[in-house]
């Protein structure tokens, strides 16, 4: 499958001399939901802004459906809808007027049937004559999405779509995003909510300090989530793991009083039974044990933790 967005060797140094992006390579597949995760200041908004033509790249190339974002800016930009982090729209305009106006900004001819469809899809049709100021926060967010979809883009960027939104509304927003995907739109979202990425994304990218440090299918990541860790507290102290136990790749704690064993809960055999008997045979006595499951959050935190 050919990518709908292709980012190669992208770097961005701001006027201040700060390097916000360092040699980013990323391909987004047509029709997928891609979640970009990263801590504050990692470069997510900078990356989105460059792809959307709001900021200039310092180095590298980006193509959107084959259109270079610099030399073929208009064609590239017309493929993209952007829902920015901050909600800003004219409070005293009606929903209909503000969404229709957004379409006009892209030089597209009027198409009331399309605007009607977008408003209906986003459950905003009965609010079409309401002034934005009278809407709830959740509705205002949906108006921002409607604006971004007004010019019939094939790609939608959602920068923190559910920041500060309550759980109920967040779930409603997920449904909206899924429906958009089903209608053929490719979606790239940034989020701080790991749960949101877990729930929504086909693929997950992690960005930290301007570099992409992981890109993975969500299902592959979920398989990693299937891994568990068994910690065994020892009655005595070990200086090193006995050679007879090498096959288990045990990790010895720094005080020598505990070993941890990683195992796969989805595997046919966890290896725990044989580990326990091999430990006994090696003369290692256990005083306590506990298990814990790694979450996407653990993976994320360990990836972005400063060295
Ligand atoms: N115009 C600018 N001039 C100089 N530095 C900037 C500019 N815009 C952003 N930066 C810096 O670039 C880095 C990346 O910022 P960016 O907004 O892309 O991060 P982010 O991942 O979107 O963060 P957040 O999750 O907080 O929105 C930050 O250190 C920020 O201070």
Walk me through what this model shows:
- Strands 6-7-8-3-9-10 form a 6-stranded mixed beta sheet, with helices on both faces. A 4-stranded antiparallel beta sheet has the order 2-1-4-5. The chain has a 4-stranded antiparallel beta sheet with strand order 12-13-11-14.
- α3 runs parallel beside α5.
- The protein is built from 10 helices and 14 strands.
- It has 307 residues and is an alpha/beta fold.
- β7, α6 and β8 form a beta-alpha-beta unit.
- The protein has 2 domains: 220 residues, P-loop containing nucleotide triphosphate hydrolases (Rossmann fold, 3-Layer(aba) Sandwich); 78 residues, Alpha-Beta Plaits.
- Adenosine-5'-triphosphate (ATP) binds next to α1.
Physical arrangement of strands within the biggest beta sheet? 6-7-8-3-9-10
- Rg is 25 Å
What is the CATH T-level topology of the largest domain? Rossmann fold
What percentage of amino acids are in beta strands? 25-35%
* Overall residue-averaged pLDDT value: 89
- Poorly predicted runs are none
Report the helical percentage.
Answer: 25-40%
Structural class computed from helices and strand pairing: alpha/beta
Bound molecules: adenosine-5'-triphosphate
CATH architecture of the largest domain: 3-Layer(aba) Sandwich
The CATH class assignment of the largest domain is Alpha Beta
Number of strands: 14
- Total number of domains: 2
Shape: elongated
Q: Roughly how many Å apart are the termini?
A: 37 Å
Number of helices: 10
**H and E string:** EEEHEEHEHHHEHEHEEHEEEHEH
Largest sheet: 6 strands, mixed
- What would you give as the CATH superfamily of the largest domain? P-loop containing nucleotide triphosphate hydrolases
GO molecular function: ATP binding
InterPro entries: AAA+_ATPase, ABC_transporter-like_ATP-bd, ABC_transporter-like_CS, ABC_transporter_ATP-binding, P-loop_NTPase
Organism: Bradyrhizobium jicamae
Family: Belongs to the ABC transporter superfamily.
């Amino acid at each position: 499958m050919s990518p709908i967005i292709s980012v190669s060797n992208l770097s961005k140094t701001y006027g201040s001399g700060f390097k916000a992006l360092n040699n980013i390579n990323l391909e987004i597949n047509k029709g997928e939901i891609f979640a970009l995760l990263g801590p504050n200041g990692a470069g997510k908004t900078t990356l989105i802004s460059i792809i959307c033509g709001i900021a200039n790249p310092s180095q590298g190339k980006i193509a959107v459906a084959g259109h270079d974002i610099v030399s073929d800016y208009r064609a590239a930009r017309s493929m993209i809808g952007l829902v920015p982090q901050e909600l800003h729209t004219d409070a005293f305009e009606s929903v209909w007027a503000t969404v229709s106006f957004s379409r006009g900004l892209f030089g597209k001819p009027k198409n009331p049937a399309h605007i009607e469809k977008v408003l209906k899809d986003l459950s905003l049709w009965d609010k079409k004559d309401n002034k934005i100021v009278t809407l709830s926060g959740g509705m205002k967010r949906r108006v921002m999405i409607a604006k971004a979809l007004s010019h019939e883009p094939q790609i939608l960027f959602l920068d923190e779509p559910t920041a500060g939104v309550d759980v109920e509304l967040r779930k409603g927003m997920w449904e909206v995003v899924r429906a958009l995907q089903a209608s053929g739109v490719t979606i790239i979202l940034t989020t701080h909510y790991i749960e949101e990425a877990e729930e929504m994304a086909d693929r997950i990218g992690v960005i930290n300090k301007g570099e992409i440090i992981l890109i993975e299918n969500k299902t592959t990541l979920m398989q990693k989530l299937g891994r568990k860790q068994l910690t065994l507290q020892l009655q005595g102290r070990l200086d090193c793991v006995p050679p007879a136990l090498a096959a288990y790749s045990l990790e010895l704690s720094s005080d020598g009083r505990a070993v941890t064993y990683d195992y796969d809960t989805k595997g046919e055999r966890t290896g725990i039974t044989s580990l326990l008997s091999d430990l006994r045979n090696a003369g290692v006595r256990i005083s306590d044990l506990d298990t814990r499951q790694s979450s996407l959050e653990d993976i994320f935190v360990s990836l972005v933790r400063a060295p």
